Amino acid sequence: SMGDVPEGRVRAPFLVVGCDDSTIRVYSLDPGGEMLKSQSIQSLTSPPRSIEILPMEDSTGMTTFVHVGLFSGLYLRAVLDDITGELGDVRSRFLGAEEAKLYPVAVNDSPAVLACGAKTFLSYPHPETKELLLTPLDYHSFNCASMLRSRVAGRKGQTSVRQSIVALRGAEIFVFSIGDTSNNILTKTIPLKHTPRDFCRHPDYRYFSVIQSDQNVLSKQAREALLADTTRSEEEKKQMGPSEQFGWPRGPGWASCIQVVDPTAEDEKDGVAYTIDLDSNEAALCCDMVPFENQDGETFLLVGTGKNIPSGPPTPSSPKSTGSVHVYRVLDPGNELELIHKTDFDKPIRALMPFQGRLALAVGNEVFLYDLGMKALLRKARCRVPGTQIIGMKTQGSRIVVGDVQESVCYVVYNHKDNKLTPFADDVIARWTTCFTMLDYDTVAGGDKFGNIWAVRCPKAASDEADEPGAASFLANEKAYLGGTPHRLALQFHNFVQDIPMSMQKTTLVPGGQEVIFWAGLQGTLGVFVPFVDREDVDFFGSLEQHLRTEDPPICGRDHLMYRSYYIPVKGCIDGDLCERYFLLSRDKKERIAGDLDRTVREVEKKIGEMRTRVAF
């Protein structure tokens, strides 16, 4: 590849050639010197599939980049020195198992590269920070692509040039354009009947089962009774329908339903495939797909509900809150549900999950194990844990981690021989848990209602002791502390994020990427926590964070360290949002910070950029 001829020149200065020996070589095209002289060589992990030379904008201005796609599915971008022809600042990203084919395009009058492989990616500089971004397109995977420029007639005879992208996929041709590049998150909306509370998916079907409930809203049964009243006028009956601005008509009690949603539906109106309404002031609170061993491994949808749940503290005159578990069979092809039976309980059911071919169920501060019977659930084991109300459960192996609404998390072990559940470790701080996930067999990360995210770990001695055969009787008689369990969890990291975490899981966001803690907040925040694997990275980002606290103070004047330690001192966590503000600093501040870190500005920017692109978009 030679690339375009630079402005003010009559020919391209360099030629970049990809070789079968897994290298790319840069040759000089200067007729005044030695023609085709080798300027530099860059080794690769596999033979190159395509090479493109493009001048793109970065933090230093316009820079010439060499983009390389490999047969192994790897994408590389290197800086080409305009004078010496040396290659440097090489950055890589795995795009998938298929070969990476690169095509130069333009997006919003700026040069970019379209990478076609297992998925289609767009490589472009961020509009504000000028940092390299590699974003997957929510579209088909293409075989090849090119730019398409067309003239569009405007008013008063004026014409303008419209830039589009034309791509081929098999025997089909696609013409499309890319608009705003400042936001690389694409959302799809499926309208639901009520506020969603939880959802789950059957392992064999593409449909999601979404439970929904709203308080102080008339239920379907109440609306039908009002519509059947002959004394009401037609105008009053029209008000019984839903409103786009205010939803369903207001009234005492709860309105709840279960809907089967197809996330692949092209039209949002076809997103909901099936609906079941709950009556009698019943609200769906949790759900999960549970395979039962006594039913030959068949997977059922179980929904935990609550009845007569008050909007505030209960009073002597308020009816007693109860709960039940509804068992549904998922009918082929997964878009219909059949009610098998339901089992009543004394308290609302806020947490359930599958556990070794059975159902693990939380009622108040008690954990139960159930099997599926013909007419009801059959209880097999029970234990009481410290706390008041269990709001979630996670499991690995024979261990269950229980999250309490105000007493953090508690570890429970199940002994198969004795058929006993025994709590053996809990936290030292009363955290008002909203969500949590297991990072490994001993470590749990969670969030609380005050905007904190933390991780706790069970001591190795306590963990090994709980897994020993016959440990149930020993743990049951071991001395407990302050009304809790015999052992305490150790805090690993703690950080204030200024949003209430509502969902959290350990996952990978990019192909071949590192596992991260991905969380979503009540105000719409999406964030990740990236674990460090190298001590050098910890020291580098820790020093960078210290410099940015001084060089880039908040405009409101608050102290950054005090802000991240709003409730509990920050521990074991570095603020990535603050580190990424390095891209927005002036040139002299960048050079001063880079000098203190014994690095160049480009090396610091590469380090920050790779921390994001290695795990996310």
UniProtKB/TrEMBL annotation:
Gene3D superfamilies: YVTN repeat-like/Quinoprotein amine dehydrogenase (2.130.10.10). This is Splicing factor 3B subunit 3. Residues 255-583 form the RSE1/DDB1/CPSF1 C-terminal domain. It comes from the Eukaryota. One of its GO terms (molecular function) is nucleic acid binding. Residues 12-150 form the RSE1/DDB1/CPSF1 second beta-propeller domain. InterPro entries: Beta-prop_RSE1/DDB1/CPSF1_2nd, RSE1/DDB1/CFT1, RSE1/DDB1/CPSF1_C, WD40/YVTN_repeat-like_dom_sf, WD40_repeat_dom_sf. PANTHER family: DNA REPAIR/RNA PROCESSING CPSF FAMILY. One of its GO terms (cellular component) is nucleus. It holds the Pfam family Beta-prop_RSE1_2nd.
